[in-house]
């Protein structure tokens, strides 16, 4: 019987290649796998091309070693193929790994899971973006699509500072965008229902709910429920932002995590500044071009988009003892 073989798609900026090759060789030997195929990403190709090459070689597993952009690019190609993705978190966000409760900053444990774990089917988001120049592009995402303040924040973040201090680099960008008084003006239709016009500072469509720093933005989001969750941030002045902070950091971040806290939430009122929706397909058009981000990476400006969920389209390696 032929030994299974993996490919490892890696971002050379995010990994210690010599140390990683030694760790992979040791895990291959322990797990009885053939020699891994190594494929490097580039600025022009963050992972789609190398992943297609891996599939041409008929590998049994593709391990993504890099940040959220590398993971997203690999998943975009693997979706629907049945070939699983293994995660080797190497960036600042590691959003999918966090939402799957995988161990971070532990290469040996991550490789044990990749080579010897079990497979979990999760949903894959798809988005079709109409850009300012009328060009239409399509991409997959695993965590979130964002329009508004979060996308502007990412556009304003200093990449060199982010490389040095991680998510602390966003503090300056947050301060910059919160001074932006412009609101999104959009018309949307959810699951084919009658269109609605709204104004909001931010709209985020999420397949997962958790962000770094233990922030639970979408408390009901699940990676395998066949739905995405939507949050609209609609603060009116300082009090509106206080309402949002209270919902996200106190109710979602503290109360929801215990049974007693959830009982206290039973009488909590929804606030106008923050609205939640759920669905399978969202179509929207913007009054003017706006910055858009996918899984923490900017994708330019959009004037319209359509996003939908492909249920269970991606297989992810998780620990063998995971429930």
UniProtKB/TrEMBL annotation:
<keyword id="KW-0444">Lipid biosynthesis</keyword>
<dbReference type="InterPro" id="IPR016064">
    <property type="entry name" value="NAD/diacylglycerol_kinase_sf"/>
</dbReference>
<keyword id="KW-0443">Lipid metabolism</keyword>
<dbReference type="Pfam" id="PF19279">
    <property type="entry name" value="YegS_C"/>
</dbReference>
<protein>
    <submittedName>
        <fullName>Diacylglycerol kinase family enzyme</fullName>
    </submittedName>
</protein>
<dbReference type="InterPro" id="IPR050187">
    <property type="entry name" value="Lipid_Phosphate_FormReg"/>
</dbReference>
<feature type="domain" description="DAGKc">
    <location>
        <begin position="1"/>
        <end position="131"/>
    </location>
</feature>
<keyword id="KW-1208">Phospholipid metabolism</keyword>
<dbReference type="GO" id="GO:0005524">
    <property type="term" value="F:ATP binding"/>
</dbReference>
<dbReference type="Pfam" id="PF00781">
    <property type="entry name" value="DAGK_cat"/>
</dbReference>
<dbReference type="GO" id="GO:0008654">
    <property type="term" value="P:phospholipid biosynthetic process"/>
</dbReference>
<keyword id="KW-0067">ATP-binding</keyword>
<keyword id="KW-0594">Phospholipid biosynthesis</keyword>
<dbReference type="GO" id="GO:0016301">
    <property type="term" value="F:kinase activity"/>
</dbReference>
<dbReference type="InterPro" id="IPR001206">
    <property type="entry name" value="Diacylglycerol_kinase_cat_dom"/>
</dbReference>
<keyword id="KW-0418">Kinase</keyword>
<dbReference type="InterPro" id="IPR045540">
    <property type="entry name" value="YegS/DAGK_C"/>
</dbReference>
<dbReference type="InterPro" id="IPR017438">
    <property type="entry name" value="ATP-NAD_kinase_N"/>
</dbReference>
<keyword id="KW-0547">Nucleotide-binding</keyword>
<comment type="similarity">
    <text>Belongs to the diacylglycerol/lipid kinase family.</text>
</comment>
<keyword id="KW-0808">Transferase</keyword>
